[in-house]
Design a protein that fits this description.
By secondary structure, the protein is an alpha+beta fold. The protein has 3 domains: about 120 residues, D-Maltodextrin-Binding Protein, domain 2 (3-Layer(aba) Sandwich), CATH 3.40.190.10; about 190 residues, Dipeptide-binding Protein, domain 1 (Alpha-Beta Complex), CATH 3.90.76; about 250 residues, Dipeptide-binding Protein, Domain 3 (Dipeptide-binding Protein, domain 3, Roll), CATH 3.10.105. It is built from 20 helices and 20 strands. The strands form 4 sheets. Strands 1, 8, 9, 10, 11, 12, 13, 14, 15, 16, 17 and 18 form a 12-stranded mixed sheet that branches. The chain has a 4-stranded antiparallel sheet with strand order 4-5-7-6. It is globular. Pfam families: SBP_bac_5. One of its GO terms (cellular component) is periplasmic space. It comes from Fervidobacterium pennivorans (strain DSM 9078 / Ven5). Keywords: Signal. InterPro entries: Peptide/Ni-bd (IPR030678), SBP_5 (IPR039424), SBP_5_dom (IPR000914).
Length: about 625
Amino acid sequence: MKKSLALSLLVFASILLLAAFDPTVFVEATIGEPDTLDPHLAYDTTSGEVLYNIYENLIAYKGQSVSEFEPRLATEVPTVKNGLIKDGGKTYIFPIRKGVKFHNGNPLTPEDVKYSFERGLLYDPDGGPMWMLWYAIFGFHSRDEAIEQFVGKPVSEIFDQNGQPKPEYREKLVNFYKQVIDPAIQVQGDNVVIKLKRPYAPFLNIIAQSSHWAAILDKETCVKIGLWDGKPDTWWKYKDVTKEQSPLYSYAIGTGPYKLVEWDRKQQKVILVANENYWRGPAKIKKVIIWAIPEWSTRKAMLEKGDADTIDVAIEFVDQLSSNKDIQIIRNLPTLAVTVLLFNWSVNPNSKFIGSGKLDGNGIPPNFFSDINARKAVAAAINYDALIQEVLKGSGKRVPTALPQGLLGYDPSLPLYKFSLNEVKMYLQKAWNGQAWQKGIKFSIAFNEGNTARQRVAEMIKMYMEMAAPGKVKIEVQPLQWPNFLDATQNGEIPVSINAWQADFPDPDNFIFTHYHSMGDYADRQGEAFKKFVSTPRKELGGKSLDQLTENAAAETDAQVRGKLYAQIQKFVVDNCLSVPLYQPTATYVFRTWVKGWYYNPMRPGHDFFTLYKKQ
């Protein structure tokens, strides 16, 4: 305890040495340091903020938009109209900007672009973000899935215990690069051409600025520091490099407006300086300090004294700053995230969360929530407005499906589920042809321990369902530690679970596919009966399955047509109560009033320091 206090005082003392106002220095106090500076491994916003300001992508989001783009290292944004999207949406052509230099003075070339994409695809580290490019370009979810398809053998049989290819598969892996990777990303003069296996509408979103997995690296420097040498017969030597072993773990050279000076691990501090030779002109802020200060009281003091220009603040602490006239608070900014209650239509029969596993008053059958009335009874037992106002302090909004407001296809005209004890009773009486009401039910709702909002949702369902059906409904609320919660949901053991999804890229497919497709990330948590339901052709969907409509919408390149498809999908989702969207959270930012030039984009990880300046 004394050691911790002494350390805090030392950090605070060093903070006080900062000038209260310097228009050339920007200080951000955060709650954590980066995980890695390797763009192809980083998958967190703290790392992403640093990478966003050091590297650049081919294209960028235009201001606050998540659907309009502007050129960055490419001179044009590909469209069908300008002829840079061809073959029905399968070929994208990027003219590469001339005269751009990396921070070490090396000129940007189309070869750097090709190398950057290929290195990321071949590296594809576990738990990293490269699955998005694999899926967008090739239709696979990983490098290993693609290898197994190409070679015809499991990866475990292709490589030896040291990760090297067995002799009989070596040539196959060389050809994997030559026949799969190399043809997909080509240099043609001053252009880089990327060929998709099938049209995939979100492709530009996946490679736009803020998606550091599509950042452009300097090939010459990468090879020099020990990354893949670009040869087809060596790539596997670099495929399983761990986080700290990556030469890019704490090293970065890009073309962006800021250069990395240091990442001080002891002080959890990253220092950036302006790139005075930046092709768009030098930034007004000449030095950026991103400092991890875990203690709220220290961050608060820094902001109040002017030693920090912005800080991370949890929603419950925001009002502590509201009376300070030198601090600006920007509230209720829409995020691209949704918290959703999921039903498991085919619970693991061995689950301890369904009691007896029968409709006998002491449990529910594993397929209990395959009945729409059972699902609607739960949906009616949630006091949505109280959840948002009392628990979230107003920092959330209701949405009709798992698609957040702000994305293509969002339809505010769709009905919202409503809180009603009468409807809870009515739907329970209908569930399982009246047997649920007659015999009674018992099950558990689990949530990850420490998540207050999820706990309150679970408690609401328990209280209101038991209130609407006294003696007929028994619900247990079970907090689980995060690893145990994940295991239980992924093993299909929890009948009702509460989950949150944050956009990987700002496209409806990232939400619609995830929640409603039989191969989506949540499909296993919703059970085999759910998968069968969404993959079976339906009369109300014109003879197509929900899976088919979802795939058609993802492949459609006409935004108007896509929007109509997503409207049709969502109407079906609401009508059948496939899941229950609880809220779309909103974001809050705090700054000193002297900070100018800030704008919000929900896909950006942190701040765009290039646009900022300070003026008293």
